């Protein structure tokens, strides 16, 4: 169709209607054909340019593959080291102020940490705390008492307090 347009034996509209396409498409195809006409005259030049671009891309892809491999090894090493850390250390590592760089969700995912651990605030049971302090006081007063006797004594004291 483009060659017919270039021969100029028929009008653009006649060729477009005969092939059931819009004249605008035919004009665009003509522009593309003329822009790439040099490829038909010098195919070896186009092939040479293609091969050079392809070789450059292969080198770039190789460099990226090396970098990805290195980063994967480093990440795996860090993941193994993170497994050894306790919960408190992992919680210290989460930085909510830098959530613009990396979200808290992603930080928790990388640390293998539940997000609920970050927001959890332990509830202090004042009654249990008082009993523990009483047991500690009994043990310090009479160190020969065993654990059972300290607990029994502290329960008596707790009953007296209530």
Write up this protein.
The chain is mainly alpha-helical and 162 residues long. It has three domains: 2-35, no CATH class; 43-119, no CATH class; 126-161. It is built from ten helices and no strands. Helix 9 crosses helix 10. The model has no long low-confidence stretch (mean pLDDT 81).
Structural key phrases:
single chain; mainly alpha; 162 residues
How many H/I helices? Answer: 10
Unreliable runs, pLDDT <50, ≥5 residues? Answer: none
What is the number of domains?
3
- Class from secondary-structure proportions: mainly alpha
Estimate the strand proportion: under 5%
Quick summary:
This protein has ten helices and no strands. By secondary structure, the chain is mainly alpha-helical.
Chain-wise SSE layout:
Blueprint: H1 2-7, H2 12-18, H3 23-35, H4 37-41, H5 43-84, H6 87-93, H7 104-110, H8 115-119, H9 126-141, H10 147-161
Helix pairs in contact: 2-3, 9-10
